[in-house]
Amino acid sequence: MSRRGIAAGLVGVWLVALGLLLRREYVHPPGERLAEAALTLPPGATYFAVTLAGTQIGYASNTLDTLADTLRVVDVVVLEMPVLGEVQRTEARTEILLSRSLTLRSFTATVRGVGMRFAAEGRVDGDSVLEVTLVGEESREVRRLPLTEPIVLPQLLPLRIAFGGELDVGRSYDIRLFDPVLMAARTLTVEVAAESTFIVPQDTAVFDQATGRWRPVVFDTLQAWRLREASGRYPVDTWVDDLGRLVAATSAAGFRLERSAYEVVYENFRNRDVAAPAVDLIRSTAIASNVTLAPDTLAALTVRLTGQSIEGLDLDGGRQRLAGDTLFVRREVLAALRPGYRLPDAGQQFRPYLDPEPLVQSDDPRLQAQARQAVENTRRPEVAARRLTRWVYENLRKEVTTGVPSALDVYARRAGDCNEHTVLFVALARAVGLPARTAAGLVYLDGTFYYHAWPEVWLGEWVAVDPTFGQFPADAAHLRLTVGGLARQLELVRLVGQLDVDVVATEPAE
User: What is the 3-class SS of 283-352, one letter each residue?
Assistant: First the structure.
């Protein structure tokens, strides 16, 4: 298996990381004060260079239009990310319509990546229901979500805080944030951590004939405040001005957004020297191993995880045991597995791992028919899991993708990296009554640990399998860090560039 085969969940994780740079968690200040302040909100656009480790990999913009009785906020991000020797282009666009008091009316979020397009469209029905439609290349799902509190979309943090008069250093807020692309909500504590002064280019630039590049000519001195998530699980420092506009943002992974003039951001990037060396997204954030391993020969692996807090990760359970900062991983022995059920009767306690969910359309007739064919109608869970692993491995081309994976879209396209292999496997497994879930973490390959995703299935215990590599069960050099979909994989963002993995001991297979 080449490295292309495991470029894996990392691309998806990085998209989430960049989303965090642009999506600013926010509070909901008193309505009357907010509505009054919002009447003075000036229209305009701001532009940002997106860099990774000092190399520009894209650009972004934020536009605010003041209409008769609504406000329209449009965020655009375009990335050209070097991944394993190829440039992967991804475009994301979010349009939000707000009332004059900054309450949500509707939104559309679109992501275009290599070979895929995904959109989430939402509207508030009265004050009690949010209707969200997820649209992929081959799929369309409608979800109606009851509302128990005001809708909080990520893009509006600076606007809400600034116009609520809340930019005071030392203040913190508990925020319930809803992400329309991930279809997930989470509670964050956001702090106003610091105040500083920035010298920022205005949207005015001239072309420098000597260098062949645009440069800013007029600068503003801005007061800005740093917003950050208090627990450190989403390590992004975001600086905003008193109008709620982004000034700069930085993540621990090395991504940075910085405001500048349109020509400096866009024209310089468009006319850049594409032959110049660029930071590779996968290789620059992989973790070198202190020991050379042969994963196929391992029965067990012991590692120490240092450099970043591992609190809150899904490290204990199944094949893994955690003691302090030391993780013990033992590959499952097939002969010792006792599933304790016959398909499709796993039991009601496994309903969360059998039911369809957004992007995992296990109730779709096409996936159900393919799943039955792939498992050859066996009722033995361990046999079904092995056959599904082989089918997904053999029927999906291994290629790096960027975007939001949907099981139906993956099934139609028959290509992708580990995220696509995993979401399709999970959907097919659930379609035949085999409890399955998504895991993500690190996998060893050629002297390096890379970020990766794979499924787990219930066979009397949670057993790791890897349809990207064709492994059943997965080798002992798979280190699970989280359980759950892309929303849960946000936990990995704080580890990138910070986590160290030291191999302490190995145990060869007999």
Answer: HHHCEECCCCCCHHHEEEEEEEEECCCCCCCCCCECCEEEECCEEEEECCCHHHCCCCCCCCCCCHHHHH
